Amino acid sequence: MADTTRKVKPSDSNARSQRHQESRLQSKPDPSAGGWVQEERLVSLSTTILERLLVSEVIDFMRLAVAEVRQFPELAKVGRTARDRAAQVVTQVLSEVADAGAIRRFPAFAPECLAATTRFFMDLVVGRLLMRAVFGEDLKLLRSAISTHVARSVAFFLAGCRHAGSQ
């Protein structure tokens, strides 16, 4: 009985944490408080995504899916669905960020480029730490690197978007 109680408490905590993270993703700038700077919104989104992904349950499932995908092809669909859902949220936020500020002039934020911009953003911000986790690096160390990695990646991403297409 005690073991069952222990297993339930972390999931309750994870559910609360997930609701909190979702509210952070859905929150809108407060005009009376000056709103969020676009870069801060992208940092917040990136941090939330990485905090959700860099947990042992997710990484273990990814490893299992890779190992067993030939026997259970439907496992690939689960990963693809999760990636597509994340891309939808990122695309929405990138679109809102572009609508809210000067970066709407950046060529990468044009509606016809937004899907590619989303892929670049996710690869740059999420891909590196996620792959390091899948290949066995310590999750505590990776989680402690999130804020530095995200700050640098978002700044680099925005600088690249600012100069995209200018030759």
Q: Give the % helix.
A: over 70%
How many strands, which pairing sense, and closed or not: the largest β-sheet? none
Shape: globular
Q: Which structural category do the helix and sheet elements fall into? A: mainly alpha
Q: List segments where confidence is low: pLDDT < 50 over at least 5 consecutive residues.
A: 1-18, 20-36
Give the count of structural domains. 1
Strand content: under 5%
In round numbers, the mean pLDDT is 79
What Rg do the Cα atoms give? 18 Å
The number of E-state strands comes to 0
The helix count comes to: 7
What order do the helices and strands follow?
HHHHHHH
What is the CA–CA distance across the termini? 66 Å
Describe the structure.
There is one protein chain. The protein has 167 residues and is mainly alpha-helical. The protein has one domain. Helices cover 75% and strands 0% of the residues. The chain contains 7 helices and no strands. α1 packs antiparallel against α2, α2 crosses α7 and α5 packs antiparallel against α7. The longest helix is centred in the middle third of the chain and has 27 residues. The protein is globular and about 45 Å long. The N terminus is likely disordered.
